[in-house]
Amino acid sequence: MSQPEPAPTRAHARRNREKLVTVARAAFAAAGGPVTLEAIARAAGVGIGTLYRHFPTREALVEAVYAAELDDVSASVADLLERYPPDVALRAWLDRYARFTTTKSGMLDTLRAAAAAGRITPQTRERVTTAIRTFLDRAARTGALRTDVAAEDVATMLYGVFLATGGETSDQLGRLLDLIVDALAPRAATRQPAGSATS
Prior knowledge:
The protein is mostly helical. Helix content is 69%, strand content 0%. The longest helix is centred in the middle third of the chain and has 26 residues, at 58-83.
């Protein structure tokens, strides 16, 4: 009679999780079509049960990959601000964010569905908002961007762009990202509210 398999140690479980995320990142970047959880588990050298212990749903795995990718994108904020004025740095960051999101085959549809259903975790959304706030705060000191716009609103516009374009890299995506930055340009004068009476 065979002995039951010993429970994995915490370190072993952590290594398995890291391996699954690493393999999933590569799979989403390289695949030309949908990526199956079974294929990810096989490439990571673990059973599908191990994958589900760490990531009970496909959305949970995608969220983990998204968070890992976002580490790299978030780390670029300081470098961009050292190299460019805040408005130019923000536009470059939006391109980088778009690139990492749109090049993950099989990942974006899951992210879009999760966002539409309100399942993107607050922590993940806050990281995007924090990055945008960093650009806005720096720009406030130089006058490069408006000071009356909340980072949360810019993040909402950004998510809206990806939902509207289907997350595909295109001329339209670039134009919409340009419009986000254009909307943040300082106003020469306060505009009269739409619909107000004029004399």
